[in-house]
Predict the 3D structure of the following.
Amino acid sequence: MKKSLLLVVVLFSAIVYSQSQNPVEIPKIVIKVALGESAQIGPVIIKFLDVVEDSRCPEYVTCVWAGRVVVNVEVKAKGKPTEIKKLIFGQTKPGESIDNILYSVSGYSLEATMVTPYPKESTNEIKDYALLISENKG
């Protein structure tokens, strides 16, 4: 009887422990906009205009600073004037700040998350730049 009771307690403990809730992170879906291209995301049209600076330290290279990439993006939203936004990914210089929110209204926002590809070698010239944008609802 004691063995049966012990077995029931052990099984019950295992079941209770296995049922604990682990928070599940909802994956973000990103929209890829190539350099020179436009994309309509919800009520907004985003155009990736140009790369102003790309001083990111290439992978597997030791650098004095990590560097950064600076891009210009055109944002057109219904009922609002067209806006050119300067986006900075990486380190900032004195007086600069990072604000990569492209559009935000009533719990809906578009945020630029990164510029790809990341440099592999310091001698490679990157031509196929793309801007990744995440859409956040509520």
In short: Residues 28-137 form one domain. The chain is about 10% helix and 45% strand. The first helix runs from residue 2 to 18. The chain has one domain: 28-137.
